[in-house]
Amino acid sequence: MVESIAPIIDFNIIIVTLVTLVLFFVAALMEIGGGYLVWQWIREKKGILVGLTGGIILFVYGIIPTLQPSHFGRIYAAYGGIFIISSIIWGMIVDKKKPDRFEIIGSLVAICGAVIIFYTPR
Length: 122
Fold this sequence. Notes:
By secondary structure, the chain is mainly α. The protein has helices at about 10-45, 50-65, 70-95, 100-120. α1 runs antiparallel to α2 and α1 crosses α3. The longest helix is centred in the first third of the chain and has 33 residues, at about 10-45.
């Protein structure tokens, strides 16, 4: 009698992981982008519409974590790592600032922490 071999790859885990990563990075983009617009309004004297747009984006950002399949504390703890690396990337693209080696090392440590916090099976 030949027994069927269980699939080696669990596609449900892959899909959930991809969806949660997309949600984390969309949240980071919205928080950083919204905060950047508020920064532009206050620090760079851009118009009030820039600030209001930033505020609306920040409000929507607050909704995105509720779509994650975990509890509040774990989501925000893991999101911290995603936020850090996303902020460094934002600085490279938008502010044209090259990260130094400590920012790169710190980002990698933070992202490792986020993966351990959010994706380790319990």
